[in-house]
Write a structure and sequence with these properties.
12 helices
Amino acid sequence: MAIIHQFEYVRPRSLKEALTLLSRHTKYTILSGGTDVVDLLKESILRPDVVVDIKGLGALKTISFVNNTLKISAGATFTDLIESEIVRKKFPVIRELATTVASVGIRNRATVVGNICSAVPCMDSGPLLSAYDAKIVTMSSKRKRTIPAGQFFVGNRKTTLAKGEIVTAVLLPLPKVKHAGCWVKLGRYTGEDLAQVSVLILALGDKSFRISFGAVAPVPVRARKIEKLLHGQIITPSLIEQAKKMVEEEIHPITDVRASKEYRMHMARIMFERGLDVAIRRLSGEGPEYGTRVI
């Protein structure tokens, strides 16, 4: 399908130039990886006056770890995350998640920042940022903001990003205690697919847990009630059954072309149980290697 809508295409040479361009236009689209944006342009869902291509900005391609915080800049791709030694050593569950994103070709272009800016319910990066209490750094020609992940997503394809703003990076603080995680993603078949249900679980050395579901509500769902139930407890089969029953209090799946709401709810419980088991065993050094499918 061709792009039939006419627009101006611009490649700024610096972030400052990009922000100046945005301040001068009201109908613009930011292009980075383009794996979502190009389809929307082809379908005329997006009809901008100008497309601002920021993928050539080297300052936005970095992954760094400073002050116990992982910084993933806007141009860093999922392949960059997979190949990052920092991620492999300190945030292995991020690597586990990144390997499940679409196909190799998509991962070579798609970015975490682009993924969260699309803000579709089935995005993979949403539960990740939610579970790590991440912050989203934005800039415009007039200001810089740092937005908690829990406040960034406000609905299906809706965020708190304001006109003229670019997300420049996401910040994921490393938990202060030892932790391990598990990413569980359900698709319709093996290979490239969007999530029907997803869940990211972190088990921490202080007997606390962080649990975030995706594709079961308009925005990522942090399962606070279940986290409170499990906190400080010895994880027994009866406690897990109690937690599984609480899943329906946390999430609100819908029926669409990929799955029914009943199937999503059923699988969310199974995925939660398996993910919790793997995260706990990984914390003790006995679980399966990261990247091992649990469903």
